[in-house]
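Exercise (ungraded).
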Amino acid sequence: MLNLIKMNLYRLFKTRVFYVMLLTTVILTGLLAGMETESASTFGEFYASFASSGYVLIMVGVFAIVFSEEERKSGFLKNLLTTRSGKKNIFFAKIPVVFLYSLFMFLGELVASWFGSLFWAPGIYFGRIGSLISFITFEVMLHTVFGIAMMALYEITRNTIIPTIITIFGSANLHGMLISFLETKLVSRIPALAGFMDKYGLSRNFIVTKTEDLGISGVSVSYVNIIVVIVIGLILYSVMGMFIFTKRDTI
Amino acid sequence: MTVFAEKGRNKMRSYLETKNLTKQYGSFEAVKDMNIHIDRGEIYGLIGPNGAGKTTLMKMLVGFATPTSGDIEVAAGDNYLTKVGCLIESPGIYGYLNAFDNMKLRAISMGLHDKKEILDILDFVGLSREPKKKAGKFSLGMKQRLGIGMALLGSPEFLILDEPINGLDPQGIIEMRELIKRLNEEKNMTIMISSHILGELQKVATVFGIISEGKLLTEVTAEELKNSYIGEADSLEEFYLDIIRKGQKAC
């Protein structure tokens, strides 16, 4: 397992797409920073609203799909001879790479936002470093889970088009809006469910909803709730991906 | 139908045997009750028309495809897959990486850290003079040699090559033939090789297995073929056609 993780990390740093996507993110963030600085009172708020906009979600989702697809399409997967039970490691070993990619994306955005803010909002108050660190930590975890979900989806479909479309729509939280609409309809029919839906409604507990919530300044978020969403997502999508990968023929 | 099976073969030297190996895709049986037998140090030539089940059989032998029923018995024991190298359908290489990096990736996945082993293999397969060239820009022959080079990492006992000379120019075919012979003679490797170019296969293989419609029709050693059957230069071709015709009549 550790060898497979090392192998994937080696590939990550040898992949030109990784650097291109990172550089694109940094440049775009730096250039577009001015759009957000007007509404934020601190750098932390400005960065949070920018970083949770859904752009990184798309980048992470697409990266996870492409990273898996490359391995299969190039045929490299055929070099990883393993028993049926060992096959789950091949899927699992990509998770640290998705995590690292998400982290690099957030750090890249952070650096670019900082330089952008120097230009667009010179002298802006930085804000609390602790809040910024916890924001990045939770966002990176949520984005990693989203990436794993897309990787699992890729293993189900074994093509890139459907998961990419779902990544784009998912990052805009269209599924959350749809479920929220259905929940509202349900509550209007059964008003007694209002309290329950307010707390445990599915639309409030999606990964994408949580990434959005974290970026909205002034909204208090329950970190316990976010941890629960991360843990459930991590287990659910990892197990799903490993199960499908193990069950189906490698090629 | 297995005319020569077991004849002239030493049970003590047996490396791999399949017992009623079957692979079914839906209602289609790609491989039916296949019982092949490979001795240690042999070069086993697998022959059959397109769609006969050669690749499916090879995929099952290396764990890419799960048999629907039947067994694979290997003298090498439980960790047999760590002693196998394969090149199935096409070499599994990343086009954007050079030969060394492709080799390095597989080496990391196997827990091998000896850079010298990679360089030695690259030298053995004749790719040491192209250290920086991206694998995507390699000729077909070079890609095939790199694929074999990757299969050789970890000094496997058993090498499975699926149509390795397909699409190669005459020079490439000669080089591949020499490489296979050297692997067998110098490294005492057991090799299974499939090809449609029977004349070429006859120059390297020591045993032939003929399959059609997912069934093994016969196994014959090169010596038996030479002495007992026809004894002509193109004996394999005539023998093959004869066996296929008999097989079709029997069906």
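Further reading is listed at the end of the chapter. For now, observe: Chain A touches chain B at residues 3-4, 6-7, 10-11, 14-16, 70, 74-84, 249-251 (CB under 8 Å). Chain A has twelve helices and no strands.
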